[in-house]
Amino acid sequence: MKTILIATDFSPVARNAVNYGIDLAKSIGHSVTIVHVYQVPVAFADGPMVLVSLDDLRSSAEKQLDQLKSDLHHVHGNAFKVYTEAILGNVVEELQHVADKLDPFAIVMGATGLTGAQRVLFGSTTLFAIRKLTYPVIAVPEGKTFGHGIKKIGLACDFREVVDTTPTRFIQQFQKAFKAELHVLNVDFQDREFRSDTPEQSMLLHTLLEGTNPVYHFIEEAEISTAINRFAEENNLDLLITIPKKHRLLEAIFRRSSTKKILKEARVPVVGLH
User: Fold this and answer.
1) Spelled out in words, what is the top-level CATH class assigned to the domain 3-140?
2) What is the share, in percent, of the chain residues with pLDDT greater than 90?
3) Terminal C-alpha separation, the chain
């Protein structure tokens, strides 16, 4: 049985992401593994000084995970498999280590979160995770529920080097798992991004996506994040797939300032695929 890996810092946004991840897992028959990565709070005066003992940090993390697991079993029943783990370290590095062991279907995180000595800065951490982790990362906006499920998936694409940059296997995996429509979005303004090989690249993408029956949408808009958010809302997308490390179009979205904006304003979960 595959698992959905969920990262939490116990903030309300992260708790909402837990609920989303569980509903997602139940819809495709997967288990859930919830991970809390904690770090040692340090104060600086004449030198670095640890504020809380490692034992206390570990104990607090494990107690919160135990309570969360108990709450989830109360709602979903003991038959639903929920595993938990508290880990000391860097959030993204530890998530990669856990994912390498579990080979999850996806990693689910809140799009933003709390800050503080014992909490992770989840907004920037989620962005870093989307860009660095080698597994699909689903960033769930505040208040977003799984609802009716995933019926419509959007894929943002710039039609550049599609053979080398399109994670075909993951896209097909998501589309097949949810039996969802696939909508390919291309944003341009006055043909600024159009190149001589764009028609050929679009045909190559269509070949790569064979079997998914994609529908193509060409959007005339100067502001990429605005265009994507508007399309997602107006067309009731349930998931937006991005390729942040490789596509120039998505690099524009995933610059720190733009990413913070899209993760804050997006009304649908954003998935980073590599």
Assistant:
1) alpha beta
2) 47
3) 23
Report CA 239 to chain centroid distance, whole Å.
10
Query: Three-state SS string across the chain, please?
Result: CCEEEEECCCCHHHHHHHHHHHHHHHHCCCEEEEEEEECCCEEECCCEEECCCHHHHHHHHHHHHHHHHHHHHHHHCCCCCEEEEEEECCHHHHHHHHHHHHCCCEEEEECCCCCCCCCCCHHHHHHHHHHHCCCCEEEECCCCCCCCCCCEEEEECCCCCHHHHCCHHHHHHHHHHHCCEEEEEEEECCCCCCCCCHHHHHHHHHHHCCCCCCEEEEEECCCHHHHHHHHHHHCCCCEEEECCCCCHHHHHHCCHHHHHHHHHHCCCCEEECC
For 174-225, the pLDDT digits (tens) are 999 999 999 998 887 666 666 666 777 888 888 899 889 999 998 888 787 7
- Delimiting residues of CATH 3.40.50.620 domain(s) in the chain: 3-140, 152-272
Structure tokens at 186: 């291309």
CA separation (Å) from 215 to 64, 205, 237?
Answer: 44, 12, 13
> Nearest CA to 155 among 176, 178, 172, 130?
172
How buried is 144 (Cβ within 10 angstroms: 0-12 exposed, 13-18 middle, 19+ buried)? buried
Report the alpha-carbon angle 188-189-190, nearest 5. 125
Q: Return d(Cα 251, Cα 142) in angstroms, integer.
A: 23
**Domain 152-272 adopts which CATH fold?**
Rossmann fold (3.40.50)
